[in-house]
Amino acid sequence: MAGVNGDRKGKKDDNGMGTAVYFLLSNAKLVLGVGGAAMLGIATLAVKRMYDRAISAPTSPTKMEPSGKRSWEEPRWMGSSQRVLNHDMKSTVSRSLQTLPTTSNSFEPDCMRRATGRGRSAAGETDLLRARMRLSLQEKLWEFYQERVTIPAEEQATARRAALDICAELRIFLHGKLPDMPLREMYLSGSLYDDLQVVTADHAQLMVPLTLEKNLWSSVPGEDTIMNVPGFWLIRRENLEYFPRGSSYWDRCMVGGYLSPKSVLGVFEKLVAGSINWPAIGSVLDYVIRPVVPSETLTLEVQYKTDRHLYVDFLPLLVMDDGASLIAKPHRLAAERHENLWRQSFRVAETARLRALDQEDGGCRCACLKVTKAVCKLNPALARLSASQLTSAILLLSEKEGDWTQEALADRFLQLLRSLVGHLEAGRLPCALIPKVNLFCELTPVEVDELGYTLYCSLSDPEGLLRTPYSD
């Protein structure tokens, strides 16, 4: 033991961990033999190395690697592979959030920080380096926006024309097949029509508004039921004693006294996927059209060019008296248990608010949203983050941050990443329009951990998010 203690003289204090390790190894041979002691030594030293790196992360937020690339020790210790955060790792992430940057100014190596105390000449050089680093992410974000995010106008127009052709065929078929079905005029919607679609024009929504009799149906908020799910609604059948079952066309889709979105989708699925001769229609339109199976909603895949595919979601829609839009898209985690729940859609209102804010100050909110959407679309580890979640996160950030000029894109992008990590750590992302709605309620704990880990690691190298596996 004396020899062990003597060898460690002058080394940095490690809160007793090193002493415990060397004591364990020096006595292991007496119990386990030479071979057992060797195996124990390898395992023990590996644990100590992880411990040393873990405790060093918060006190040493940045370091310079031999290549000159900046990184945080914590994400490097965690590893670069996609892995799930356990509770201890999540606690470390939460503590370390206090040391992470909030602006692109924070991306500077330790040597630059030390230089600030070397006199006025060194301070001027440091300011220059800081400015260069600040511009680096800004330039790469706008370059990414131009090369990867933006969709050529011709491609968007062609995709819209294909979606319009499908909409026209469905309208003709439904009106001819079921003329008594109470429907309002169908219309196309989605990010393809809001100039918020990114990377490729591959998705559209066909909204199919249903007409309900006001005296026969009423809406019940999800939080007012035993299920307690804000953001979802029940459509309850009323006055059955005066207007028996069959008085409304949609009584055929009633389950347990409520209008079931699953049953409504089933009715349209039999018609759209089972009755329409899509190969014949496709040959006339020079498209290849086929229903997507399986799908949580009714979706058509349209191949309108050899290398171009468009997915059209067929979405039954209810518009309430208060303006709330409810769509027949099931709860992702409890579709069977909550099969009567209609999902409230915030897309139109969120998009309108985002654009209004940008118009007021010439801001970069929409650009920030499109960049982040593209990052999530091109990185499989972030695919579970939806446009609605990202939009709400930006709207919430807009309430705290006033500078959304084009020159502040890098700062706001970093703030958005950091705020998403915080929301994931809390397991809650409030809807910007209705805060009681948790937009993370349909993510599993494993998905929350994986998203949090990926975004947390990206804070050490945000430019890495722009170097996607699919980049040219």
TrEMBL record:
<feature type="domain" description="Mitochondrial dynamics protein MID51-like C-terminal">
    <location>
        <begin position="155"/>
        <end position="350"/>
    </location>
</feature>
<keyword id="KW-1000">Mitochondrion outer membrane</keyword>
<feature type="region of interest" description="Disordered">
    <location>
        <begin position="92"/>
        <end position="119"/>
    </location>
</feature>
<dbReference type="GO" id="GO:0007005">
    <property type="term" value="P:mitochondrion organization"/>
</dbReference>
<feature type="domain" description="Mab-21-like HhH/H2TH-like">
    <location>
        <begin position="364"/>
        <end position="451"/>
    </location>
</feature>
<dbReference type="Pfam" id="PF20266">
    <property type="entry name" value="Mab-21_C"/>
</dbReference>
<dbReference type="GO" id="GO:0005741">
    <property type="term" value="C:mitochondrial outer membrane"/>
</dbReference>
<dbReference type="InterPro" id="IPR049097">
    <property type="entry name" value="MID51-like_C"/>
</dbReference>
<keyword id="KW-0472">Membrane</keyword>
<dbReference type="InterPro" id="IPR046906">
    <property type="entry name" value="Mab-21_HhH/H2TH-like"/>
</dbReference>
<dbReference type="InterPro" id="IPR024810">
    <property type="entry name" value="MAB21L/cGLR"/>
</dbReference>
<feature type="transmembrane region" description="Helical">
    <location>
        <begin position="20"/>
        <end position="47"/>
    </location>
</feature>
<keyword id="KW-1133">Transmembrane helix</keyword>
<dbReference type="Pfam" id="PF21297">
    <property type="entry name" value="MID51-like_C"/>
</dbReference>
<keyword id="KW-0597">Phosphoprotein</keyword>
<keyword id="KW-0547">Nucleotide-binding</keyword>
<dbReference type="GO" id="GO:0090141">
    <property type="term" value="P:positive regulation of mitochondrial fission"/>
</dbReference>
<dbReference type="InterPro" id="IPR045909">
    <property type="entry name" value="MID49/MID51"/>
</dbReference>
<dbReference type="GO" id="GO:0000166">
    <property type="term" value="F:nucleotide binding"/>
</dbReference>
<keyword id="KW-0812">Transmembrane</keyword>
<protein>
    <recommendedName>
        <fullName>Mitochondrial elongation factor 1</fullName>
    </recommendedName>
</protein>
<keyword id="KW-0496">Mitochondrion</keyword>
<feature type="compositionally biased region" description="Polar residues">
    <location>
        <begin position="92"/>
        <end position="107"/>
    </location>
</feature>
